[in-house]
């Protein structure tokens, strides 16, 4: 019985949304049904798309031969159906003409690129070679599309929540919450949130708030609070009593968002006198000074060591220059253990790393100083 059930399983090709050029992002798996494939995708944060696998080979010509001789039940065998075939190449770019040239498949249905009834993909994996890009693929697959996941950025917030091991009713804190876009992704799957940000945020509309964002998705019950503050103002956190189950954040690292804290620039005597007069005015906003990435990360680790519950996790992004990166660049703290360090490549030389740390020891000032 078990054997006959197993025989009914079909092959699928899972396309992972990763940027590791050396690794084939296409994984062959077996599943009982398209429904099961769709269910897996609904929980698979790093899954990009899943396809029913119709054939694979080491070159496109062999793949086409295999497909022509296979007895797959093709839903596009009748002329009243419509279809579309995409070509996805990993580690190689192809012009539209080159892509069209590769799809020499005769389906009876009509081509409809905007609203096809059936979608197919030719997936090609090229071995990575930065000097002499490979001309021929190492592996090619053809499959019928089953399901894709959302774009990468919201997906990353789910990945961060997963790494933070956030559970129902956990209290989660984002010290650099910004507009709360990422927070929304975390709250949609998990619960409990609390988040401050910094002075100087601008409104386009007065009702443009994190709480209203959450309301649109009926998630406001998970909202605890948000406040505008400079993260570096340690007087805000007047107790070292642990309170957050997870701290999940995307700190400003100067690419799109400048890293700044409240403080004074070096000034001449006359500037200082002028400022003293101005600061007595009722509507005074403090100035900002630049905030070095290393200091910001050390502050973040120190804050996490003080305010996380034991076993609680700190999850954050850290930018790196790939040529000079060594694992020792990751900041460390005696109360926090590094549990994961994974890379998202932006360009050949620049990437960022998703760092996950777990609080393993209670914070103790004497231990830190010795
Ligand atoms: C990379 S963005 C995070 C964006 C956020 N995840 C979102 O979905 O909008 C970093 C945020 O930190 C804020 N920020 C910069 N310096 C800060 C500081 N010293 N204290 C608190 N927030 C700060 C920036 O204004 C920006 O909104």
From TrEMBL:
GO terms for cellular component: cytoplasm. Keywords: Methyltransferase, Transferase. Residues 257-281 are annotated as: Disordered. Residues 19-148 form the tRNA (guanine(10)-N(2))-methyltransferase TRMT11 N-terminal domain. GO terms for biological process: methylation. GO terms for molecular function: methyltransferase activity; nucleic acid binding. This is tRNA (guanine(10)-N(2))-methyltransferase TRMT11 N-terminal domain-containing protein. The keyword DNA damage does not apply. It comes from Capitella teleta. The keyword Metal-binding does not apply.
